[in-house]
Amino acid sequence: MWASESDENTRRHLSAAERLVEEPHLNQVVDEMVLRAKTKDPNDIQISLDLVPPNACRHVRCLPVQTVHTASPERSAALAAEILIRAGVSPKSALAGLAALRNGLGPRGQSLPGASLWDKDTGERVEPDFSKGIRANRFDYSSTGAGVIESTMADYGLTYARTREALAVATKTVNSGVTAEICWSSEPAYTTGYIASPRYGYVRLTGFKPYGACGGRICFIDLTADSVEDYVERLEREFVLIEPPVVIHDPVSAEEFLDQA
Ligand code: PML
């Protein structure tokens, strides 16, 4: 689903979402998509459907979740840099990425519809189109696993739909070979963001986004391992179904996280 506010000359992105579902759930999911799009009051909603052979889907395990409480956005930013570096991103790239996220990754400092791709070593921004970024596509919780993951998350108070969706995005990006992903929400008042990596899983930082900053997402990639095109192909085109269990750790402070990490 892609919802926008369009006129003859411009198209402003408002909302986008994609699901990978079994046929019996199709009508219900399309209805959910339309309802979701309408909350943003668009004048253009596009929905497209593709048939996927079941054996084309790779099944992966959901990333483990850790919430870290920090005292301020400044403390969160320092912790985020530390986590990125420990996850394998160079200090130069980590700091440049965080600064770009704060300034807005889209043209004129707005949000991008997709993720920006950065070379994890040089800090160079490398996605083909800086006005769009790359959208991680073609993933979902499996139909048998979705309820288990949702109820485990609810046991830990993680009931916000954006958290569940972001965990799925992060599970896809990490399973597409990115070294680390960093993200905060386009929802103005929602300040919890996350860093995902193979080393630490899905690490949520509360109070991460400076209040009112626009949303953004950066994937740091290893260009000594694969080309930009390889990453784009996996992020956009590989089908991934996410399976339980999801391991959720009790929340910790920044200091506790760094001591145990
Ligand atoms: C979380 O609650 O774990 C962070 C969610 C980030 C949401 C990003 C978005 O809004 O797309």
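Residues 160, 162-163, 166, 183, 185-187, 192-194, 204 surround pimelic acid (CB under 6 Å).
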